[in-house]
Amino acid sequence: MIEVENVSFTYPSGVEALKEINVKINDADFIAIIGENGAGKTTFIKHLNGILKPTQGDIYINGLNTKKASIAELSRDVGLVFQNPDHQLFCETVEDEIAFGLKNFGFNKDAISERVTWALNLLDLTKYGKVSPFMLSGGERKRVALATILAWDPKILVLDEPTIGQDFHQKDKLRQFIVQLNSQGRTVIMVTHDVEFVADCNPKVIVMSNNRIIATGSAREVLTNFDILAKASVLPPQITQLFIKLSDLGLPQNVIDLYEAKQLIIDLTKGRLNNEGL
Amino acid sequence: MSIVEIRNLSYSYPGLNKPALINIDLTIEKGDFIILTGPSGCGKTTLCRCLNGLIPHFYNGDLTGDVIVTGLSVKDNPTSKIAQHVGFVFQNPENQLFALSVEKDIAFGLENLAVPRTEIRKQVDHALDLLGITNLRDNAPYELSGGQKQRVAIACILAMHPELMILDEPTSFLDPVAAKNLFEIIYALNKELGLTIILVEHRLDLLCTYANRVIIMDEGKVKADGIPRDILSSKEVLSLGIGIPKITKLYLELKASGIHLGDPPISVNEIAQEIRTLMLND
User: Fold this and answer.
1) Please, which contacts does A94-97 make with residues 24 or more away whose CB atoms are closer than 8 Å?
2) Residue B120: what pLDDT?
3) In Å, how far are B45, B48, B64, B71 from B77, measured between CA atoms?
4) How many secondary structure helices (H) and strands (E) does chain B include?
5) A137, A143, A228, A264: best mutation site toward chain B, by most B Cβ within 10 Å?
6) Superfamily of structural domain A2-91+151-230
7) For the domain B2-236, what is the CATH code?
8) CB-CB: which of B38, B41, B254 is closest to A262?
9) Dihedrals phi, psi of B252, to nearest 5 degrees
10) Which residues of A fall within a CB distance of 8 Å from B176?
């Protein structure tokens, strides 16, 4: 469980990046954090593995105050995947990169080799095991960064913009295994600008704006609340935009899912035909 | 008039057995606004690197075939010469900006081309004005937001008067509103200055109304090339798993269920209009 109690954070330069953040994230929660550039999203998640410590207030990870724990201690439970993979990757091969964290946590040789193979396979990277991460495309490097963290199987997975540079297939695979990891009991927290991805994943949503949390709710509640989205510089999903435009035809306004939308339009056309029949 | 002529281009990175580009033939016309997309690792970025000479001059490797950009063969001309005609905007503006003020960053390219001082001033002012960032001229790039930084990166390129501007996922690090604003600026540069645009992007929903042409690559080859409306609704593209906009997907799902809405839509307004028309005609 993650308990964030009245947390504010000011960077040494004097920039206030978080103001009075209060939130409780339970085990096995699946959370998306959305909000405008500079809203404080990345600053917030950097607090979860102790890279940053609150200027004011406290954060407890499974009861442990982050101010009293080392980053190494916290990282065993909280795996953070950075937005820019180049801030994270440095080894000579993709395999070494994935093995690095495992070595540091003291896994034995066999376990390391097994987990490296597992993570490479999971992220479609097996063919790149012996290749330098810097020979890979942006989207592939992003997956390597994710593999390095998944390999040690942290209980809480924190992903900063996981869909950047990912094509449709990779995004869909990413969604499937995030959902799977979550259903197996891991907590997943992802920061994203990709509302369509949020609509597909259907997590709980935290909206940040101007360094504060301004709303929390289900994906459906948040993504169909135009006022909140506008404050956070987020555009509603296309399906939601369409249903708002068509609300005078008697369609509901709070639709985010493609297949729900399809069924509603089919019903609409049938209803119309039935009326004519009368 | 064509601005890019690619004839039978193949390329392999040094040390990798698999070619990154295979027998590419492509002509790009002056004034085109092209979305270049395809699965991760399909060769999009590699193709762009061939257009400004980073391949073969910086990355080396094995290049065969011809790449002629603004009349210059990239094999036979140094990147410094090609850079005067082809501008390249990277995914992350932080990889591109380094000076202590926005103004100095924009002037840097022109200084390297030994443009006279008074002319540099003029061009910097003009580029600031085009991107709507005159108020930021004395700011340090690192103080700016992601959207502002990306505008500065584009201004740096624009100041050098390229004929072709290549942008590699320029909105990856931007929030959706900032991304939309940036696409609108790029669109205006295309329409008003006639600047040829090649934009690499996965998220087509925000973008396909601006482009006149979509090129789809897969495994180092060009797999589809045409106007957005046709390409996005083609079976071939669906099988490649390109992230087509949700409304285009809704159109296809409805079609499969026997509800026909006319031309494939590429914007929310279009599909809304088609559904209305359907309801009125029934």
Assistant:
1) A94/A120, A94/A125, A94/A128, A94/A129, A94/A130, A94/A131, A94/A132, A94/A133, A94/A136, A94/A144, A94/A147, A95/A120, A95/A129, A95/A130, A97/A133, A97/A144, A97/A147, A97/A148
2) 95
3) 20, 16, 15, 11
4) 11, 10
5) A137
6) P-loop containing nucleotide triphosphate hydrolases (3.40.50.300)
7) 3.40.50.300
8) B254
9) -70, -40
10) 193, 195, 233-235
**Given its phi and psi angles, is residue A220 left (phi above 0), alpha (psi -120 to 50 degrees) or beta?**
alpha
Contact (Cβ atoms closer than 8 angstroms) between residue A40 and residue A18: yes
Note whether A160 contacts B: Cβ–Cβ < 8 A.
Answer: no
Residues from chain A that touch B245, judged by Cβ atoms under 8 A, are: 238
Answer whether residue A276 shows pLDDT above 80.
no
Q: Which of residues 234-273 of A touch B (CB under 8 A)?
A: 234-235, 237-239, 241-242, 245-246, 249, 258-259, 261-262, 265-266, 268-269, 272-273
> What are the boundaries of each domain within chain A?
2-91+151-230, 237-278
Please give the residue of chain A at the shortest CA–CA distance from B251: A262
* One-letter identity of residue B60: N
A21: helix, coil or strand?
strand
Q: Is the ipTM reported for this complex over the cut 0.85?
A: no
> Hey, which residues 140-169 in chain B have their CB within 8 Å of chain A?
145-147, 169
CATH 3.40.50.300 domain residues, chain B = 2-236
Cross-chain CB nearest to B247 (options A172, A193, A238): A238
Q: What is the pLDDT of residues A117-173, one digit of tens each?
A: 999 998 889 999 999 998 888 788 888 999 999 999 999 999 999 988 788 888 888
Task: Tell which B residues from 28 to 47 touch A, by Cβ distance under 8 Å.
Answer: 38-42, 45
Helix (H, G, I), strand (E, B) or coil at A206: strand
Sequence-distant (≥ 6) Cβ neighbours of residue B169 within 8 angstroms: A138, A164, A165, B91, B200, B201, B202
Q: Do B282 and A246 touch (CB under 8 A)?
A: no
- Nearby residues of B50 by Cβ (< 8 Å), 6 or more positions away: B6, B9, B11, B21, B63, B67, B74
Give residue-wise pLDDT tens across range B104-161. Answer: 999 998 998 889 999 999 999 999 998 889 999 999 888 787 788 888 999 999 898 8
Give CB contacts under 8 A, 24+ apart, made by B109-115.
B109/B83, B109/B156, B109/B157, B109/B159, B109/B160, B110/B159, B110/B160, B112/B80, B113/B84, B113/B160
| B13: closest chain A residue by CA | A135
User: Tens digits of per-residue pLDDT, A158-212?
Assistant: 999 998 878 888 888 889 889 988 999 999 999 999 999 999 999 999 999 999 9
Nearest by CB to residue B259, choosing from A38, A164, A269, is A269
Q: Do A246 and B272 count as a contact with CB atoms less than 8 A apart?
A: yes
The kind and range of the H/E element at B87 are strand B86-89
Write down the pLDDT at residue A272: 58
Under 8 Å CB pairs connecting chains A and B tally to 132
